[in-house]
Amino acid sequence: MIPLEGPRWNSNIIHVHVTSGQDWQQNQTYQAMQVWNQAQLWFAKEYFPNSSVYTFEVGDSSAPVQVRLLNSSTVVGSIQGWTDYHAPNGIMESANVKIGAKNSAEAVLLLSVHELGHVLGIGHVSCCEKDVMNPYPVTDHVSAFPSTLDLYAVHVLAAGFVPTFVRLPNNIPYQTDAPIPTPEFNEYSMIVAISVIGATFCLRRRRSV
Q1: How big is the chain by its Cα radius of gyration, in Å?
Q2: 17 assigned to some structural domain
Q3: pTM score above 0.70
Q4: CATH number of domain containing 163
Q5: Phi/psi at 21 (nearest 5 deg)?
Q6: Which residues form the domain of 34?
Q7: How far is CA 59 from each of CA 95, 99, 133, rounded to the nearest angstrom?
Q8: SS3 string of the chain?
Q9: Phi, psi of 28 (to 5 degrees)
Q10: Which residues contact 115 (CB under 8 A, 6 or more apart)?
Q11: Which residues pair with 28 in a beta bridge?
């Protein structure tokens, strides 16, 4: 089971502007955008052909999603990732993401995938330690890919429904290592890290309505 944040995006195209940070740090956030794009396409093809999906695209300074990469390992206290969003009347209008980017490339990728999950409207999953949406992924080999539970939740949101939480249907197995192709992002193409070894993070988010 995974809770939903409440709001959903009206548009299936979500523009993201990444500010600050070195090239390799920005590349990991661009890579995380493609992880979500590719994972949703795989999930739709596998379980819900022709269904709607969200697509992250690079935007400019006017983009509704602003990602700020900080030259530190945390954004506040021990927290390494944080997402604020503005969602009047249950419609997501904008989101501001902060990521402590002074970490390893694998950690920045994991943090970016996690926070972009909040941007899409899904909350923290507490049932599965290796899930990228777990707020405290303290075990080894935490997946840097969305699980099928995460993807099902996003599928529900993209279809226009906003329940309080969703459960994975019995006909869809829980997976944290979906066989999606290695994402490519134009000149930012890099090899995606499937797992983060020995990751210890504290990720939280808040919202403004």
Answers
A1: 15
A2: yes
A3: yes
A4: 3.40.390.10
A5: 85, 155
A6: 2-196
A7: 13, 18, 25
A8: CEEECCCEECCCEEEEEEECCCHHHHHHHHHHHHHHHHHHHHHHHHHCCCCCCCEEEECCCCCCEEEEEECCCCCECCECEEEEEECHHHEECEEEEEEECCCCHHHHHHHHHHHHHHHHCECCCCCCCCCCCCCCCCCCCEECCCCHHHHHHHHHHHCCCCCCEECCCCCCCCCCCCCCCCCCCHHHCCCCCCEECCCCCCECCCCEC
A9: -70, -35
A10: 67, 81, 82, 83, 97, 99, 203, 205
A11: none
Is 20 part of a structural domain of the chain? yes
CB 135 within 8 A of CB 202: yes
209 located within any domain: no
Three-point CA angle 92, 93, 99, nearest 5°: 85
Say if 207 falls within a structural domain.
Answer: no
pLDDT digits (tens, 9 = 90+) for 10-21: 999 999 999 999
**Residue 197 confidence (pLDDT) above 60:** no
For 128-187, write each residue's pLDDT tens digit.
Answer: 888 999 987 544 567 789 999 999 999 999 999 999 999 999 999 999 877 765 554 443
- Structural domains of the chain, count: 1
Give phi and psi for 59, each to the nearest 5.
-125, 180
Instruction: Provide the residue type at 68 as one letter.
Output: R
